[in-house]
Amino acid sequence: MRSGEPPRPEDGASSVADEAARLAETFAAWARTTGGRSGDRTAEPPAADPEPTRPAGCGCAAGGVETVCRVCPVCRLAGLVDAIQPELIDKVADLLGMVASSLHEVAADRRGAPGRTDDAGEASPADVTPPVGGIEIPVTDGEDD
Amino acid sequence: MSPSVQLVCGPGGAGASTVAARLAAAVADAGRPVTLLALDPYDGATAHLDDPRVRTVAADLDLPADGGMPDLLSALGLPGDLLDDFRATSTAAQLRLLWSVPTEAGGEHVVVVDAGHAGPELARLVRTLPRTLRRLTPLGGGLLRSRRPLVAAAIGDRWPGAAITDALGQAADRAAAVRRSLCGPTGGAVIVGDVDDPKTTRHAVGVALSGVRVRHTAVGSGAPDVAALLAPGEQVIDIQARGDGYLWRMPLPLNDFRQLRLRLVDDALELSALGHRTVVDLPTALRRCHPSGAQLRDGMLEVAFDPSRQQGAGS
């Protein structure tokens, strides 16, 4: 790949990256239109603005006021999710799960790291971990038995 | 019944290849079918013996690439020739040599392996290969889907899961058969060299650490007595009941207890001494026990396991 040129994934080989890029573009478009609500009314809506789906319980759904739903973040998010392929949602969910588990591991690692606790001199028995790499077995020649 | 595998090895220049060639000829003289394998195709035992009764195989370093690995690498999106350089390494040659052991031959068959100075390395490979292949087996199943879902989604149907499962299963079976032949009651090792030479001692320690019985230590180029060498012995590693617990025993001749380091790692014992290291699987009965001590006396290592302190029972 040449520098400055966006990656051009082959068919199927980089579908995750491809769909992630599309997701980012969709999010960016959504952010632009949502951001215009706070005063910048001159911002143009995206060309492929999906028809918002009104979620149950949303107050916008009852009145049928289209202009309200274009700026309501709940309806916009619901419409965005509705417009994304289910497979992509699965992958995003997987990604978020991996990020979450990684954060858990980082948190656990920081808890167990020496010198990070405020009461480092009062380690409880639960903090004592077995030595890394198994249990050492002392070997004798049997003379003491 | 598995064939008998006799590993002939020693420090460099000790004459292991000569002893291996003479041993193979002596086995043929005794009327038993014999195969002679050599790690070194140029100066090994196969180059020293021209006997039609002995089938010879040398670890050729220039073999054509097999079909499986390039396909696997391609499925991962990697160049198919990525491991071509690895094929020329000594470890790859040892693997090919082990795959040449005729495991399907009967118990009458004798396989003499001229390992040269690589005896401890080859013994360790024989000991640990089944374990390594067993640990790779989840690659063919749902490992990717459960551990790396994004990668699994990216690879999709191109992941040859069933083929990997089959290949690893067959390889593990073959590796276990080779281990039975070398580490079982009829297998063993002939260490060539002077027992007073520290190099010979270190070599023998390295071989014995992998659970290979050191049957004979030869000085010079004379072949050991075939009948005594091939006489079936007891299991190299055995377990005895001791009180409420068990005693795991393995012969370690020429070892000093001060130089032996022993650790329990998951479901295996890791042994290291004099720069050699190996991992020996524990039988199922001991995997939930706790080691309470070990002693090495008169060339026998005994590790006591106490079932009353099972791991996890008190936590």
Verbal overview:
The complex is a heterodimer of chains A (145) and B (315). With 145 residues, chain A is mainly α. Helices cover 47% and strands 3% of the residues of chain A. Chain A has five helices and two strands, in the order H-H-H-H-H-E-E. In chain A, helix 1 packs antiparallel against helix 4. The radius of gyration of chain A is 27 Å and the shape is elongated. The N terminus of chain A is likely disordered. Chain B has two domains: 227 residues, P-loop containing nucleotide triphosphate hydrolases (Rossmann fold, 3-Layer(aba) Sandwich), CATH 3.40.50; 72 residues, Immunoglobulin-like. In chain B, helix 4 packs antiparallel against helix 7 and helix 4 packs parallel to helix 8. Classes of the chains: A mainly alpha (145), B alpha/beta (315). At the A-B interface, helix 5, strand 1 and strand 2 of A face helix 6, strand 9 and strand 12 of B.
Tally the beta strands of chain B. 13
Low-confidence stretches of chain A: 1-13, 34-53, 114-131
Biggest interface and residues each: A-B, 23 and 25 residues
Structural class of chain B: alpha/beta
The main sheet of chain B orders its strands as 3-2-4-1-5-6
First and last CA, distance of chain B: 44 Å
Label this structure with key terms.
heterodimer; A: 145 residues; mainly alpha; 47% helix; disordered N terminus; B: 315 residues; alpha/beta; Rossmann fold; Immunoglobulin-like; 2 domains; 9 helices; 13 strands; disordered C terminus
Give the arrangement of secondary structure elements.
The complex is a heterodimer of chains A (145) and B (315).
Chain A: H1 15-35, H2 59-63, H3 66-69, H4 73-83, H5 86-112, E1 135-137, E2 139-140
Helix pairs in contact in A: 1-4
Chain B: E1 4-9, H1 16-29, E2 34-38, E3 54-58, H2 68-75, H3 90-99, E4 110-116, H4 119-136, H5 143-147, H6 149-155, H7 161-183, E5 188-192, H8 198-209, E6 214-218, H9 226-230, E7 238-242, E8 245-251, E9 261-265, E10 268-273, E11 276-281, E12 290-297, E13 300-306
Parallel strand pairs in B: 1-4, 1-5, 2-3, 2-4, 5-6
Antiparallel strand pairs in B: 7-8, 8-13, 9-10, 10-11, 12-13
